[in-house]
């Protein structure tokens, strides 16, 4: 997609909208699976565990945040070129930084209370704290909202680097170089170039188990910042190339096929490999998933589907507030000797119903919807009642 003027809105990319929502939704799935993983360090440990849970955990960790940051970079450049740098920064501060601060007490601080409830009700030991917790800054841990902090860091770094480059080389040359970078990244071997920052992040981290470990404090950490700034940059440069999505749409079978093979290697044998080899395979697996999913969604999700659009709009709200609800449900189910699939389906159903009802009643048509989604939208339940009355 080409850069547009401030008065011309580009056509909506329904496939990428859906994919961004799916990345947030996978985070909810991820947090619902962790209690069933043997030996996992989590807020709640279920009485029923299975090694099989590690398979989806590893697969989701491989690509979810890389995909999300790549899409953030793609949409970020689109907004900046349509509305200008100042408006872009104000929008990101309003819709990323402010939600991090405003939702932190409910979304993160409340988890300490729930851990205490879990200990009191079940007579279990509280979960151990990470080594990084020695820092006094842990009192301000971003928790599961860490990605908003890292995303804001990526936005600021990118805007500063872009401003310096335009000052030194001129806007036209920067635009040409961005287009060339996008063409290279969208080429048949571009996925390997995209994976380099992820590889570097894993090498800096010193291990590949669990993918990139999220930061525990508000201080920037090298491994996540390098990895996700790289992903943000990939999306930024792909947006500078008008035919980038078309190229990825044409090669999605190759990328998804490679992702399956590389993921199998990660699951079955990466632990026995040297760090550099395991890191390279892990990074390539994450990025082949990302390229493949972007390609298939760009190929087949080309028109608006009301249900998909609604879920895409709701996904941000759902992710911001899902964890306290999810942990509360996990505490109630933890000591029941039910099969894991039954517990998961019940957890997902209750979480989805509560969060979607909350979104429709409290957010979608209110000032909260204008804040989180950019504008107010008609409520689904109100439309249903209107249609029924008519």
From TrEMBL:
Residues 14-357 form the Acyltransferase domain. The chain crosses the membrane at residues 21-43, 55-75, 96-121, 145-165, 177-198, 218-238, 250-270, 276-296, 316-340, 346-374. It comes from the Bacteria. One of its GO terms (molecular function) is acyltransferase activity, transferring groups other than amino-acyl groups. The keyword Transmembrane applies. Keywords: Acyltransferase, Membrane, Transferase, Transmembrane, Transmembrane helix. Pfam families: Acyl_transf_3. This is Acyltransferase family protein.
């Amino acid at each position: 997609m080409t850069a547009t003027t401030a008065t011309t809105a580009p056509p909506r990319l329904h496939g990428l909208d859906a994919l961004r929502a799916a990345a947030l939704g996978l985070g909810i799935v991820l947090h619902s699976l962790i209690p069933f993983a043997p030996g996992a360090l989590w807020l709640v440990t279920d009485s029923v565990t299975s090694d099989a849970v590690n398979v989806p955990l590893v697969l989701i960790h491989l690509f979810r945040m890389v995909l999300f940051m790549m899409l953030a970079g793609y949409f970020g450049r689109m907004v900046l070129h349509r509305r200008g740098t100042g408006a872009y920064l104000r929008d990101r501060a309003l819709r990323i930084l402010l939600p991090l601060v405003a939702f932190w007490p409910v979304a993160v601080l409340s988890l300490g209370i729930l851990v205490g409830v879990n200990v009191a009700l079940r007579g279990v030991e509280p979960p151990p704290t990470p080594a990084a917790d020695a820092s006094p800054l842990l009192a301000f841990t971003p928790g599961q909202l860490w990605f908003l902090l890292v995303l804001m860091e990526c936005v600021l770094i990118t805007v500063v680097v872009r401003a310096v480059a335009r000052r030194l080389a001129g806007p036209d040359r920067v635009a040409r170089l961005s287009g060339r970078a996008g063409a290279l990244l969208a080429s048949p071997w571009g996925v390997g170039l995209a994976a380099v920052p992820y590889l570097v992040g894993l090498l800096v981290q010193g291990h590949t188990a669990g993918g990139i470990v999220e930061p525990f404090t508000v201080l920037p950490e090298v491994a996540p910042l390098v990895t996700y700034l790289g992903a943000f940059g990939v999306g930024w440069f792909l947006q500078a190339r008008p035919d980038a999505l078309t190229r990825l749409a044409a090669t999605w079978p190759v990328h998804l096929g490679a992702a399956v093979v590389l993921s199998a290697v990660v699951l079955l044998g990466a632990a026995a490999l040297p760090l550099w080899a395991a890191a390279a395979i892990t990074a390539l697996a994450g990025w082949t998933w990302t390229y493949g999913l972007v390609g298939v969604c760009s190929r087949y999700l080309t028109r608006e589907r009301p249900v998909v659009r609604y879920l895409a709009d709701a996904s941000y709200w759902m992710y911001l507030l899902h964890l306290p609800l999810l942990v509360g449900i996990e505490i109630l189910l933890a000591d029941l000797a039910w099969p894991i699939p039954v517990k998961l389906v019940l957890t997902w159903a209750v979480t989805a119903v509560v969060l979607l009802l909350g979104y429709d009643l409290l957010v979608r048509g209110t000032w909260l919807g204008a804040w989180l989604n950019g504008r107010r939208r008609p409520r689904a339940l109100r439309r249903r009642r209107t249609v029924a009355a008519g």
